[in-house]
Amino acid sequence: MKVTSRRDFLYQLSALAIAARGRAFASSNNSVLFAGTYTDDKGSTSKGIYAFLWDADAGALSPLGLVAATTNPNFLALTPDGRYLYAVNDGEKGSVSSFSVHGKFGKLKPVNVVSSNGAGPCNIAVDYTGSAAFVANYDSGSAASYRIQPDGGLSKAVSSFQYTGHGPNVQRQTSPHTHCTTISPNNRWAVINDLGLDRISVYHLDAQTAQLTPNDPPFYQALPGSGPRTFVFHPAGKWAYSLNEISNTLDVLAWDNNRGTLSRMQNISTLPKGFSGESTAAQVVIDAAGRYVYASNRGDDSIAVFAVDDRDGQLSCAQRVKSGGKTPRHFALDPGNQWLLVANQDSSNIVVFARNGHTGQLTQTENQYPLSHPVCLVFG
């Protein structure tokens, strides 16, 4: 493999490790699914993070129970080697909990807890080398980066950003609301979605130090009142997809990896034509081959399936399917990309869909599992 710098060398080694780990999943046909929950939701009986044993042959889960008691772990992330798991703890004084992962049944051992440097953390991400972690604080409209230490714990914040301003929607955009951090496929850039400002900020990333430096230009401006929430890069590194919560649309973006800039090529609705009810978009996922993009709608309670044009990355709707419950806050493809699992927050269930790898289309199975207020699914 051609290597131009030490950073590229580390990234490429990590990419090989992730690929090997995916092959191991495929050969063993089982892994662990971690589920984050809201413990403070009205009526919730959840106590923290739960684990399930995943059988990829049957598309079935076996509950392993509570693996970490922690408050409102509403988003989870694993290091690329699967040794450490991180959870943001939503609250007025937000925090981030670190755990080491032990054994094939997903046992978690606490490592440390640090401040999220803001209120209402809603997302955590880890870079491709497992050296740095990134937190978005929705309520305070701030973001922070952290070094991952040798024992898997997090350092104090290395970079911290407090955003200011507002968007045009007086109900939803009276202040900044950072929602997620996404790392570029080459591990050199970090982008941060802000629902309140209709903005995606772009930063140079030094993964070894976890330092973020604002790019020039510093951000992409989304359509007014759209509310960019979640974001994925295409595996080819040429395009990206930003899901807008308020307008229920996807921005298809051209990504200039040299300049760190985004430009809109398409804006497409995630809802059925003629839909007139209330709905907010939540999660966006792309399959490993970069052929299909999936988006969830809370209100319509559906998963929209989009085919990717391999010439320019633009999308066409291939299917919409009901989520099998109420409020599909989050969903995940399994390691083999054969199944899609949906966490329905308000109906308190996880539903398994079979996925056709050729057409991208989903078929709901009979496999569904009760869990109080699930809001994040991560395969370990």
Produce a short descriptive summary.
By secondary structure, the protein is mainly β.
What key attributes describe this structure?
four-stranded antiparallel β-sheet; 380 residues; Methylamine Dehydrogenase, Chain H; globular; single chain; 28 strands; mainly beta
3D structure, described in words:
By secondary structure, the chain is mainly beta. The chain has one domain (6-379): YVTN repeat-like/Quinoprotein amine dehydrogenase (Methylamine Dehydrogenase, Chain H, 7 Propeller), CATH 2.130.10. Helices cover 6% and strands 53% of the residues. It has 1 helix and 28 strands. It has one helix spanning 6-28; strands at 30-37, 48-55, 60-69, 73-78, 84-89, 95-102, 107-115, 121-126, 132-137, 142-147, 159-162, 178-183, 189-194, 199-206, 211-221, 228-233, 239-244, 249-256, 261-269, 280-286, 292-298, 302-308, 315-322, 328-333, 339-344, 349-355, 362-370, 374-379. The strands form 7 sheets. Strands 3-2-1-28 form a 4-stranded antiparallel beta sheet. β2 and β3 form a beta hairpin. The radius of gyration is 19 Å and the shape is globular. Residues 13-27 have low confidence and may be disordered.
**Percentage of β-strand residues:** over 45%
CATH topology-level name: Methylamine Dehydrogenase, Chain H
CATH top level assignment: Mainly Beta
Q: Tell me the CATH superfamily.
A: YVTN repeat-like/Quinoprotein amine dehydrogenase
Class based on secondary structure composition and strand pairing = mainly beta
State the helix count.
1
* Overall geometry: globular
